[in-house]
Design brief:
single chain; mainly alpha; two-stranded antiparallel ribbon; 66% helix; rod-shaped
Length: 109
Amino acid sequence: MPEMKIAIGGREFDVSCQEGEEHFLRSAARLLDTEASALISQIGRMPEARMLLMAGLMIADKAAGLEDQLRAAEERATLAERVAANARANPERVEVPVIPPQVTETLAE
């Protein structure tokens, strides 16, 4: 199991992960570090547990917002699919009672 050092909020942590998961761990650590650094710049130094908790909550809040946006986009896509299916099932019929003379002349050529 690979051991890695990650930095979050200016503090280093030793963590382990499954083989091949190092990239995902680094990516997650960068997200957490970004939020922790923003907190530290606004509030200043704080206990490690509080920093990690607050940074995690900020990430969770962003994830919840993205889930809401995804759900709304999926609902719009479903509605668009229904409208398209209805249009295919019931094509609009256009009836022309009299053929305009220009069309008849064009067809005769």
